[in-house]
Amino acid sequence: NPELAYKVASRLYLSIGKANVGKFSDGEVAVELNENVRGKDVFVLQSTCAPTNDSLMELIVMIDALRRASASRITAVVPYFGYARQDRKTSARTPISAKLTANLMVEAGIDRVLTMDLHAGQIQGFFDIPVDNLYAAPVFALDVKHQFKDLDDVIIVSPDVGGVARARELAKRIGVGLAIVDKRRGRPGEIESMTVIGDVKGKKCIVVDDIVDTAGTLCKAAELLKDEGATEVHAYISHGVLSGPAIERITNSVMKSLVVTDSIEATDAVKAADNIRIVSVAPMFAQAMLNVAAGNSVSSLFDEAMLGPIYEAFYRFD
Questions:
Q1: Nearest-CA neighbor of 29 among 5, 67, 4, 60?
Q2: 224 φ, ψ to 5°?
């Protein structure tokens, strides 16, 4: 995600470290550092998104190069942590890939991790080093308050029971009600039925989740909310994976807008979509990195009162 890295570096009045990252002819990842890092406090920013395996290998090979070049401390800044959805055994003879990924990163030589909206909070426990997990909720709360002048007819919606805590957090921040979409699956990958728990009639619904991948469930939830009497449906999703038919589905859906962060660099198709908007988390990550480097609190960034002035100084909402 070089675009996010440049935004963060700009916020910190720094330049991106000089390095060559490429591949050998057989596809192996090749990394070469082009400046002295001995004794330096180094932050490596890399989301392990598609191409996931290449991104992960680039990250751990870069970390190994930094460790062997005598960097004093290496922090992996991973805005989107890939493999996070494989955080437990879902059936017999399946791996826990999130734990394996954590092991790879630690063994490569990182000293701490800075990430955002892990799919499952327990993933922090997969690392035997400090992990700072930021939240997009304060940034989303600032954006919602800017975009929706009247919050009386706004309601936050969790797209499933598992995401209630995340949705409740945003609802609490902006002072509105909460509804839930209850999904029942017939078999893996297929939704048998969906039911809305809560009154959404006459409301502007804001669906909140951490990941949007193929967007099938999200678009079906939007249709159900409209059928239940919602006047508008919007979505705020932390990580826009947006693979396969996602862009087409969202463009043709009843959703008025989908807001994602730039934790994953947007493709040209995402940028061209009329109903997809990107909110930058660069100011939040820049401040978090500054706090880590200075030994200050990172949890202070969980409050939009703290982030508000930071965003006003760096990023102006349209």
A1: 60
A2: -65, -40
Which helix (DSSP H) or strand (DSSP E) does residue 195 occupy?
strand 190-197
Tens digit of each residue's pLDDT (9 = 90 or more) over 219-278:
999 999 999 999 999 999 999 999 999 999 999 999 999 999 999 999 999 999 999 999
Q: Which candidate in 7, 99, 183, 204 is catalytic? A: 183
Catalytic site includes residue 183? yes
Q: For residue 8, which phi and psi values (nearest 5 degrees)?
A: -65, -45
10 Å Cβ neighbour count for 52?
A: 15
Do 240 and 266 form a contact (C-beta atoms < 8 A)? yes
Residue 263, strand partner residues: none
CA-nearest of 22, 66, 12 to 44 is 66
Positive/negative CA dihedral, 238, 147, 162, 75: positive
The answer to whether 261 and 278 are in contact (CB under 8 A) is: yes
For residues 303 and 267, give the distance between their C-alpha atoms in angstroms, rounded to a whole number.
Answer: 30
Q: What is the pTM of this model?
A: 0.92
* Total residue count of the chain as it appears in this document: 318
| DSSP-assigned letter for residue 271 | H
Q: What is the enclosing helix (H) or strand (E) of 141?
A: helix 137-147
